[in-house]
From TrEMBL:
UniProt keyword list: Membrane, Transmembrane, Transmembrane helix
Identification of the protein by name: Phosphatase PAP2 family protein
Entry-linked Pfam families: PAP2
Stretches the record annotates as Disordered: 1-76
Source organism (scientific name): Streptomyces halobius
């Protein structure tokens, strides 16, 4: 069998030298080699891999990875502030209710503090004024007016954005105004107001706590825990403040590097509502309408109701993109 002769021109041209680089061009894998060095192999110029003993796997005795992460693992990474406030309110209300129902030591201390505050030097006129702010006739018109105002403005923005097809969302995409459920926050606020008597009355009937001595003039009365006036004031004024400041909590800093003037409104309004509710609680105790634990229990119930309102609005109401005209105008 005849073998095919091998070409002589290729047999003698085999060289063991490395290929040369063309001037002005570089190989795709030669990113770590200086230009003009003539060596396309990165492994020849790169230092060897890091030894196993020199690797930093994190803090000793703690969870770590290789390579290490910049931050330590948090024990509760998914807990939101709204959920934390709601959970704390539930736990505190359960503890206070247990003390009142079991005639625990906290209830005896509460009654002594209530008698001392009722006989204190706080002016009776000012205490009566703040106590009346928790009355249903006085407290309910405030959130109802805010609910009507925010609902009307939301309906106007919705109606004005229905025909926008070339807005912030781009060509052929509706404006972000059309994706926001404007009616949900006012409706949830009205339901929160209706939930106050539904939560307070069953506990009053179940515990049947006697009232302070001032309330026994016309005969003994039961059912003072939790305070209906305290819960009404906290939920009414709290939900009104949340409706007015919704959409302003997440305002970022402007080009000046300082917070916008509107970003200070939520904090000032929250402080005003807190001071108002503290005045209502002190007025109720000073006038002998409730014990201090009655007011604290009502505040815990209000914290649960307001936390649920915030969670519902954050989950289903939606919000426009930050930095748009819609986000600056939305409440």
């Amino acid at each position: 069998m005849r073998e095919t002769p091998r070409p002589q021109g290729t047999a003698g041209d085999a060289r063991s030298a490395l290929p040369r680089l063309r001037p002005g061009r570089a190989l795709a894998h030669n990113t770590g080699t200086p230009r003009g060095s003539g060596n396309p192999h990165r492994s020849d110029v790169r230092p060897p891999h890091t030894p196993r003993g020199a690797r930093d796997t994190g803090h000793r005795g703690r969870l770590g990875t290789s390579p290490p992460v910049p931050r330590r693992p948090t024990p509760f990474p998914m807990v939101s502030p709204v959920f934390a406030v709601g959970l704390l309110s539930v736990l505190l209300f359960a503890a206070l209710t247990w003390q009142v129902a079991s005639h625990g030591p906290l209830r005896a201390l509460d009654e002594r503090a209530g008698r001392a505050l009722a006989a204190g030097a706080i002016p009776s006129g000012a205490a009566e004024f703040f106590a009346d702010l928790g009355n249903t006739v006085v407290a309910l018109p405030v959130p109802l007016a805010v609910v009507a105002w925010t609902g009307w403005h939301g309906w106007r923005r919705r109606r004005g954005g229905e025909g926008k097809e070339e807005g912030e969302g781009g060509w052929g995409v509706k404006s972000p105004e059309s994706a926001v459920r404007w009616w949900l926050p006012p409706l949830a606020a009205a339901l929160a107001l209706a939930a106050v008597p539904a939560l307070v009355v069953p506990f009053k009937v179940w515990l049947a706590r006697p009232g302070p001595p001032q309330m026994a003039d016309g005969g003994p009365h039961d059912g003072f825990y939790p305070s209906g006036h305290g819960a009404t004031a906290a939920v009414a004024y709290g939900v009104a403040a949340l409706l007015l400041t919704r959409g302003q909590w997440r305002r970022g800093q402007r080009r000046t590097g300082r917070p916008a003037a509107g970003a200070l409104i939520p904090g000032a309004l929250a402080a005003a509502v807190a001071v108002l509710n503290i005045g209502v609680g002190i007025g109720l105790v000073r006038q002998g309408y409730h014990w201090p634990l009655d007011v604290l229990g009502s505040w815990c119930l209000a914290g649960v109701v307001l936390s649920v309102w915030c969670a519902v609005c954050a989950r289903w109401a939606g919000a426009p993109p930050q930095g748009t005209d819609a986000s600056r105008a939305r409440l």
